[in-house]
């Protein structure tokens, strides 16, 4: 979308440049004020639906920023909030005057309260919890008042820590009971195990450990988790908290406008392109250094077999230079040292799992995150063979569109499936949050002759119609698209276009996510003439809305499936309509398009599928599971008594067991990798394992099973005409 700048955005860039945001203009201000001024300027002039900076805007920022910093109300006191209240209606004025007094005061108080919180949890966790007392905690914090004093705040922490520890305590007891039963099964004496779960008798033992000792170990576990959390918090710098403040302001415009700090912009680019330059390992911060948590298939570490999961990186050097000790360093800063341009060498001082220390030199390379990319499999159902393409996102390299992107990859997978002789294709867009608009238009063109795919409108501008102008059809056979509540943006464009053309049958949730807006990423450095503050990051700005070719918006409403199949999230609030500050729904005039006439029984196929769904016991079970999950989510008052907690857990387990068959379902379909991929398995056992796991999950997937049923039912007009040869037919 980077190249898809609208006229309005070009006007902004010119206008901003003419305003001369130079160092001289801000010689008495810091980087934060420069950022605030730049971002609000761009928002006011470039956002699709800019907001008035007034007292109402100010109070929304006030409430939301406090909520972002302290959502569980365990840091600030009521007196702090009263002190902050004088800024409730002044934030809009501060923004206009590039004043950050409100942020500074709140930030400084938060740092103080967080320091105090560490003392509180240390003190609370030094004392045993009594799980025989009847008391409850409300885990819905939204309408809870802030604590009126430190005594009340400590009590709030006590209940929260007791709640956190109760689950750990229960797990440890369950584990010991399992050991006891195993010992009895091996000929142990039941009397010697002395099982006694009466918590009023802490000397009761579970295989050489008392209940009292389990309680102590549980508190230590909770403390360790909190220590790690506050260690992460301690790594954050003031600029990290200021980014939170900036994004609270930005979020008032809509849920998808977002400010990226320089590091976040790099992560966004990696996510969109599915690649980066480095060594190919995922790291986790540990007190001893950075621990290898995962090795990415195909990367330098994987190829060289030079590191293993569990190894700890202690020092990082650049091509023979003096290494830098990264113990205690922020993980992001350590990663910056380890990553680098393709072809360069990084020297890592590593502690192996056996304690030995050695230096490993690795040549950096481009690392591809394969899980981000399209993948396909063949599906065998009785005598028929079909194809399935899974697309996690509409990825693209914004710097070079000719590099790997979703459209070209899906085209390759379609061609490979044609070579396999498949009779229909399922395109799985479930959980696909979208991505590049350009790739959607190209991808849709694989399945139709030509015509409009999506309409786009900028604020105050005439609509633009994005069309497929290539008359070639790569696949004109039966097509099903799978969606769910998390299919968003570009996924909705593709599903909507195929639905409007009646080119594909859309199967899935009642409606998709409902994101009908377009964002452009604007590097802020491009706006400033000169800058001594370093990289300013970028802003992802909502500049347009897109519309179906029938004129309707997908905003809020999403795409309604032709065949609705419930899933476990059917009753949970996940969509755009459940976000803060979404833009509204509207419609424009439809584009000129012609419905595809390839199917002779589209409506009959949909009707038959609906009948199958109505009588399917597995579907009824999924519906019941979805309702139960909603009930669980709405249950916010939790007992802190072990007996009551255990009873609730046992009831939940009993209810959960009723849905166990959902995980054991067998569609009897057979899934196989394509030939090109099976050839890779000899070199990549990890890839083989990933695909085996994927195929096993697909075989349990009733949505895929029904998609295959629909493919089997669909008949093509073209088949009736022996003189016409389908593009989808091999040979």
UniProtKB/TrEMBL annotation:
A GO MF label: serine-type peptidase activity
Range of residues in the leader sequence: 1-17
Gene Ontology terms describing biological process: proteolysis; signal transduction
Pfam families linked to this entry: DUF3340, PDZ, Peptidase_S41, TSP_NTD
InterPro entries (UniProt xref): ClpP/crotonase-like_dom_sf, PDZ, PDZ_sf, Peptidase_S41A, Tail-specific_protease, Tail_Prtase_C, TSP_N
Keywords recorded for this protein, A-Z: Hydrolase, Protease, Serine protease, Signal
A GO cellular-component term linked to this record: outer membrane-bounded periplasmic space
Protein name: Tail-specific protease
Source organism of the structure: Flagellimonas aquimarina
């Amino acid at each position: 979308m980077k190249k898809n700048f609208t006229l309005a955005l070009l006007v902004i860039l010119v206008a901003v440049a003419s305003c001369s945001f130079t160092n001289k203009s801000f010689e008495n201000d810091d980087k934060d004020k420069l950022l605030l001024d730049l971002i609000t300027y761009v928002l006011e002039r470039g956002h699709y639906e800019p907001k008035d900076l007034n007292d109402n805007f100010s109070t929304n920022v006030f409430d939301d920023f406090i909520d972002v910093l302290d959502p569980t109300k365990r840091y600030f006191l009521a007196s702090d909030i009263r002190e902050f209240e004088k800024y409730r209606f002044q934030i809009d004025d501060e923004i206009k005057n590039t004043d950050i007094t409100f942020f500074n005061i709140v930030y400084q108080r938060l740092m103080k309260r967080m320091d105090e919180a560490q003392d509180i949890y240390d003190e609370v966790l030094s004392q045993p919890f009594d799980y025989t007392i009847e008391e409850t905690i409300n885990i819905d914090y939204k309408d809870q008042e802030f604590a009126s004093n430190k005594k009340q705040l400590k009590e709030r922490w006590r209940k929260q820590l007791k709640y956190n520890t109760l689950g750990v305590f229960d797990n440890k007891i369950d584990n010991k009971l399992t050991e006891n039963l195993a010992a009895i099964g091996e000929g142990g004496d039941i009397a010697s195990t002395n099982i006694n779960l009466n918590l009023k008798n802490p000397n009761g033992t579970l295989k050489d450990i008392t209940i009292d000792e389990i309680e102590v170990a549980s508190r230590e576990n909770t403390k360790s988790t909190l220590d790690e959390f506050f260690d992460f918090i301690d790594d954050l710098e003031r600029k990290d908290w200021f980014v939170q403040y900036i994004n609270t302001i930005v979020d008032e415009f809509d849920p998808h406008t977002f400010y990226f700090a320089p590091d976040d912009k790099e992560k966004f680019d990696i996510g969109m392109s599915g690649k980066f330059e480095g060594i190919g390992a995922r790291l986790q911060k540990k007190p001893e250094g950075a621990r290898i948590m995962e090795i990415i298939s195909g990367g330098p570490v994987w190829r060289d077999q030079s590191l293993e999961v569990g190894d700890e990186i202690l020092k990082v050097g650049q091509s023979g230079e003096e290494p830098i000790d990264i113990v205690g360093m922020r993980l992001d800063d350590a990663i910056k040292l380890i990553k680098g341009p393709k072809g360069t060498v990084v020297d890592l001082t590593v502690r192996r799992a056996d304690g030995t220390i050695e230096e490993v030199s690795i040549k950096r390379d481009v690392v591809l995150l394969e899980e981000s990319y399209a993948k396909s499999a063949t599906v065998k159902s009785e005598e028929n063979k079909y194809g399935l393409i899974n697309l996690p996102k509409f990825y693209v390299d914004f710097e070079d569109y000719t590099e790997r992107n979703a459209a070209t990859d899906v085209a390759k997978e379609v061609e490979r499936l044609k070579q396999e002789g498949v009779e229909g294709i399922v395109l799985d867009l479930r959980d696909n949050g979208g991505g590049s608009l350009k790739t959607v238009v190209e991808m849709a063109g694989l399945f139709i002759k030509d015509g409009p795919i999506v309409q786009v409108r900028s604020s105050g501008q005439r609509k633009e119609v994005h069309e497929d102008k290539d008359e070639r059809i790569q696949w004109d056979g039966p097509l099903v698209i799978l969606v769910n509540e998390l299919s968003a943006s570009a996924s909705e464009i593709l599903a909507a276009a195929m639905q409007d053309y009646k080119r594909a049958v859309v199967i899935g949730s009642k409606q998709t996510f409902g994101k009908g807006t377009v964002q452009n990423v604007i590097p802020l450095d491009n706006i400033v003439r000169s800058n001594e503050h370093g990289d300013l990051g970028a802003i992802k700005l909502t500049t347009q809305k897109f519309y179906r070719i029938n004129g309707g918006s997908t905003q809020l409403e999403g795409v309604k499936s032709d065949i609705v199949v419930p899933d476990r999230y059917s009753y949970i609030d996940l969509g755009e309509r459940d976000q803060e500050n979404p833009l509204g729904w509207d419609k424009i005039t439809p584009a000129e398009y012609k419905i595809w006439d390839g199917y002779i029984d589209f409506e009959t196929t949909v009707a038959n599928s609906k009948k199958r769904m109505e009588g399917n016991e597995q579907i009824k079970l999924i519906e019941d599971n979805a309702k139960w999950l909603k009930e669980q989510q709405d249950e916010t008052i939790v007992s802190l008594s072990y007996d009551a907690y255990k009873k609730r857990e046992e009831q939940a387990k009993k209810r959960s067991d009723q849905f166990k068959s959902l995980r054991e379902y067998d569609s009897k379909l057979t899934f196989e990798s394509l030939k090109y991929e099976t050839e890779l398995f000899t070199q990549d056992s990890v890839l083989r394992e990933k695909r085996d796991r994927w195929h096993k999950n697909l075989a349990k997937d009733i949505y895929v099973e029904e998609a295959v049923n629909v493919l089997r039912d669909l008949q093509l007009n073209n088949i009736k005409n022996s003189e016409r040869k389908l593009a989808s037919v091999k040979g």
